[in-house]
From TrEMBL, chain A:
Name used for this protein in its record: Carbohydrate ABC transporter permease
Family named by the database record: Belongs to the binding-protein-dependent transport system permease family.
Domain ABC transmembrane type-1: 81-283
Entries under InterPro entries matching the protein: MetI-like, MetI-like_sf
Classification lineage: Bacteria, Bacillati, Bacillota, Bacilli, Bacillales
Domain of life: Bacteria
Subcellular location: Cell membrane
PROSITE patterns from the UniProt entry: ABC_TM1 (PS50928)
PANTHER family per record: ABC TRANSPORTER PERMEASE PROTEIN MG189-RELATED-RELATED, POLYGALACTURONAN_RHAMNOGALACTURONAN TRANSPORT SYSTEM PERMEASE PROTEIN YTCP
From TrEMBL, chain B:
Species the sequence originates in: Paenibacillus spongiae
InterPro entries documented for this protein: MetI-like (IPR000515), MetI-like_sf (IPR035906), UgpAE/MalFG_permease (IPR050809)
Domain of life of the organism encoding this protein: Bacteria
Occurrences of domain ABC transmembrane type-1 (ranges): 86-301
UniProt protein name: ABC transporter permease subunit
Primary residence: membrane
Length: 300, 314
């Protein structure tokens, strides 16, 4: 790499124009992405009247936390939140165990038949039985309306197996296997005591991918659950944000116009609350993103 | 463990395989639950696809129901919906490919030129963020921003003296909203892989080009783009293979009775006819048609890419 000072002195006029345009365009992109997010955050704590009339366009106006108060009075949102936390923790744990169980043996070059097994997994990325046969399977297994319908059918992702297998192959020298074999330690021991502690970055990436997936998923719940007490947050959100169903949100004493106003504020607040865990984890996990994707990008 | 026939034991090659299998038996034990999972939850439904060629009778189950040949496929091909579904699915898929595929590449090339570390990190942090919003929240936000009276977009239109547009209920807007919101949500995230590929380009190439007097644009054109070409081709193959696989979730959430004309795609049709109207066999047939076309597309594009440039999935 050329040092910054060096590069600057060698810039021609065309290069400077390019530099300037690049920064300008990127800043426009930055604002286009940031603005809707900031707007939602500001609107969630602003007076609904100001938001609806267009007086609030960037920073919060006439700050009120009414939307948030309404959310915490709503039983269905709270139940949905707790359900989602439960599904996410359980589902991610199953995902991680299954991914490790698949990736570790497949990363071993001395495993007979590993290519055939891998091919069997990979084929499912490109061809599937489709919605109805899958639904019938879940139904026949008696998993309809249970937690299991949300965590078992997607127990592992082939893509993540590939990423983790590649990581194991590249970051753990095969001499370790031989040394462990000579010491007489079993593969389980090797995996738990040596390999997993060395694989924290990839485990963090996997946890991130899987848990965000569970947190945001709604399709499985839509087709497999009918019992409202088991609904995850996203199904409740769908009713509030998209179907505008909020009968229980405001007390009957409120005037109709008030209800409509509240409905808007609640929508903004609910978006923030639903994404809060991801937003809070984001800064800590961000440094792992590139690593995870880069490992995945390498064909193994 | 099953006893081996004498002929296999005498074959040294087989014996070596068996010895290695026996030595690594613990690894196969680890793999067992995963293999079982794939057999049950992926391969069993593939076997269940025979439903498409049968008339489903609940009491007989999938395997006991009578065969009816291509009846359900014929019904689908003859139906009023067929061309509408094909047209919508294809045009959304192609639109997404044409707009959503190159933008992350351009973004990565642009981010790669930023030399201020802080600004680079800021851009990446912000552009990755929308990727983590759920589809429900994204569609909720689209509806809030595009609402006819209160939405900020229409407020701006009114500010400039324009007529408010009912974005969500006018069919001609559906595809653009679908594709553009997808670009907004995922362009940063999709650019990561290209940034990774760009960071792997040998800096000496740039050094040499600089000495030869190449401008920055010339270096992007002659060094960076060829450098990430293999990555581009692989991702293009994957994308092309899923042109007909327009994601169910977002279309379903954005759909309403008024924009149906341009929003009805194969996957939402399968959901409607299968899950809501319980026409199991018919829906399975439609779904199978979709999967087979996708698979053929993938294999074809892969074949062309391998012939043309060398990079391919397999």
């Amino acid at each position: 790499m050329v040092s910054d000072a060096d590069a600057v002195t060698r810039q021609t006029r065309g290069d400077r124009v390019f530099e300037w345009m690049n920064y300008a365009l990127l800043t426009i992109i930055l604002l286009l992405i940031l603005y809707p997010l900031l707007f939602v955050a500001s609107a969630s704590v602003s007076d609904p009247q100001a938001v609806n009339s267009g007086n609030m366009w960037l920073w919060p106006k006439d700050i009120t936390f009414l939307g948030y108060e309404k959310i915490f009075q709503n039983k269905e949102i709270l139940t949905g939140y707790l359900n989602t936390i439960m599904y996410t923790v359980l589902g991610t744990s199953i995902n991680l165990v299954m991914t490790i169980l698949a990736a570790f043996p497949l990363s071993r070059r001395d495993l007979a038949g590993r290519n055939a097994i891998m091919a069997m997994f990979v084929f499912t990325m490109f061809f599937s039985g489709g919605l109805i046969p899958s639904y019938m399977l879940v139904k026949n297994l008696g998993m309809l309306n249970t937690v299991w319908a949300l965590v078992i059918p997607g127990a592992v992702s082939v893509w993540n197996i590939i990423i983790m297998r590649t990581f194991f192959q590249q970051s753990i020298p095969s001499e370790i296997h031989e040394a462990a074999a000579i010491d007489g330690s079993s593969d389980f021991h090797l995996l738990l005591k040596i390999i997993l502690p060395l694989s924290m970055p990839i485990l963090a990436v996997m946890t991130l991918f899987y848990s965000v997936g569970h947190w945001n998923s709604f399709f499985n719940a839509l087709i497999y659950l009918t019992d409202r007490d088991r609904f995850p947050l996203q199904l409740i959100l769908r009713e509030i944000l998209i179907q505008n169903q909020m009968e229980q949100m405001s007390e009957s004493a409120d005037a109709l116009t008030d209800q409509i106003l509240y409905a808007q504020t609640i929508k903004y607040a609910v978006i923030i609350v639903a994404n809060l865990p991801v937003l809070m984890l984001y800064p800590f996990l961000q440094k792992y993103f590139t690593k995870g994707i880069m490992i995945g990008a390498i064909k193994g | 463990m099953k006893a081996l026939p004498a002929s296999e034991i005498s074959n040294p090659n087989h014996r070596r395989v068996w010895k290695s299998v026996l030595k690594n038996w613990r690894l196969y034990v680890m793999l067992a639950p995963v293999i079982l999972y794939f057999l049950v939850f992926h391969y069993w439904p593939m076997y269940g696809v025979q439903l498409a060629f049968k008339d489903f009778i609940a009491t007989n189950g999938i395997f006991g129901s009578p065969w009816v040949g291509f009846k359900h496929f014929e019904r689908f091909f003859d139906s009023y919906y067929f061309w509408r579904l094909i047209k919508n699915t294809l045009s959304i898929g192609l639109y997404e490919l044409a707009v959503g595929f190159p933008i992350p590449i351009i973004l990565a090339l642009m981010i790669n030129e930023v030399r201020h570390k802080f600004y680079k990190r800021l851009i990446q942090t912000v552009t990755y963020m929308p990727h983590f919003l759920s589809t429900v929240v994204l569609v909720g936000m689209i509806m809030i921003f595009l609402a006819p009276e209160t939405g900020i977009v229409n407020q701006v239109i009114k500010l400039f003296g324009g007529e408010p547009i009912r974005f969500m209920t006018e069919p001609e807007w559906f595809k653009s909203i679908f594709v553009m919101s997808g670009v907004w949500q995922h362009m940063g995230w999709s650019s990561i892989i290209y940034l990774a590929a760009l960071s792997g380009i040998d800096p000496q190439l740039h050094e040499a080009a600089r000495v030869d007097g190449a401008s920055r644009l010339q270096r992007i054109w002659h060094i960076n783009i060829p450098g990430i070409m293999p990555t581009i081709v692989i991702l293009l193959i994957l994308k092309a293979g899923s042109i007909l696989g327009v994601g169910f979730e977002k279309v379903f959430l954005m759909q309403n009775s008024l924009n149906m004309e341009s929003s009805d795609v194969i996957s939402t049709f399968v959901y409607r006819s299968g899950m809501l109207e319980a026409q199991y066999s018919f829906a399975t047939a439609v779904d199978l048609f979709n999967s087979v076309i996708n698979f053929i597309l993938l294999v074809t594009v892969n074949f062309i890419a391998r012939r043309a440039g060398g990079s391919s999935l397999w």
